[in-house]
């Protein structure tokens, strides 16, 4: 029961940190350099790659926060798997962003999620 409560709390905070940081970075990049983001009403390739990298960093930070909450006592790798599942699930369910991003970047950002969450947990637990 307690482990489940910690897992739910950690998952919620890990998700909110990841998405919150990503949104803040997206808004900041867009405000600082709108030409980098879009040209002729199309998202640029450079920006897509930048977003993939930003997402990688955001998932590392969100996973680190989640691992802080879970510690070693409350199934940390189960938590990591849950965070990856939720983040990748949301990425693939958002049809509009999936269309904008393209299948190549969709796969890349999914892999970045897996690597970022793994790295965040690894850095915290080792």
Automatic annotation (TrEMBL):
Superkingdom as given in the UniProt entry: Bacteria
Keyword Transmembrane helix found: yes
Keywords noted in UniProt: Membrane, Transmembrane, Transmembrane helix
Transmembrane annotation, as ranges: 6-32, 53-71, 77-95, 107-125
Protein species of origin: Tunturiibacter psychrotolerans
Protein name: DUF4345 domain-containing protein
